[in-house]
Every structure is written in structure tokens, then in C-alpha cells.
Design goal:
Blueprint: H1 3-17, H2 40-47, H3 49-52, H4 77-86, H5 106-122
Length: 125
């Protein structure tokens, strides 16, 4: 199997394992673009906070990003990228599957991941 395909399969496996916001549940509005902020914090507020909490501690609709499951050793940056861009099946939590975030770009997700990682470090993760 070519190395490129192996990497893609590993990233897909990580993405499938990431848990997320309850896609399809009533009362949860899946964000859609365009996303105007240029910073990870602003983009997170627009695209992620509804489910994952303004403080990254989760809500009734999605899990906390300040949990060991979401630290880089368990879910690398590529897993966040894949989940936001393509959606993902629930794995660790019972919030339901996460749909893709409509209208978000890879560059914007990378800014969000940088913000999440910064907040994880600040929280001692």
C-alpha cells in the first residue's frame, strides 16, 4: 500500500474515533459559513462553541475539548481537521455524530485547532 494511502487511512481512522456535536439532534443548529473571523478564537466562537462550549468545557450538545481525549497524544490535529471538514461518527461520548461544518475552510480549522491547543496548554493539558 503506498505511503500516502496509509497516511490517509490513519487520518480517517482518527477522525472516525473523534466524538462530537450531536448532528441531527433537535435544538442543535449546525453552524454554516461564511465564517468571518480571522483568529482561531473568533472562528471557534462562530463554528464550535454552540456544541463544545464557549469555554471549551462542552455543553449538553457536545463534549469538552479540555478533556484528555482531545489532547494531541489521543486525537492529533489532523483528527480535528477531518471531523470539521467531513463530519465524524461518535466514539467516546453519547452526543451523536458530528456533521461536517459547512462553509469552513482548512485554513480556518487549523486556526481553530491552534486556539484549542493553546487553551489546552493553559488548562494544564
Amino acid at each position: 500500500m503506498p505511503a500516502r494511502m496509509s497516511v490517509a487511512l490513519v487520518l480517517l481512522a482518527f477522525a472516525v474515533g473523534i466524538a462530537a456535536c450531536g448532528g441531527g439532534e433537535e435544538g442543535v443548529e449546525v453552524p454554516s459559513g461564511p465564517f468571518d473571523a480571522t483568529t482561531g478564537e473568533g472562528l471557534y466562537a462562530q463554528a464550535c462553541a454552540t456544541c463544545h462550549g464557549v469555554d471549551l468545557r462542552g455543553t449538553e450538545h457536545g463534549p469538552p475539548f479540555l478533556h484528555p481525549y482531545y489532547e494531541p497524544g489521543h486525537h492529533p490535529d489532523a483528527a480535528f481537521l477531518a471531523a470539521a471538514m467531513a463530519g465524524v461518527r461518535a466514539h467516546h461520548w453519547d452526543f451523536g455524530n458530528m456533521p461536517a461544518i459547512e462553509g469552513i475552510t482548512e485554513e480556518q480549522v487549523r486556526a481553530i485547532v491552534d486556539y484549542v491547543r493553546e487553551q489546552q496548554r493553559a488548562a494544564g493539558g
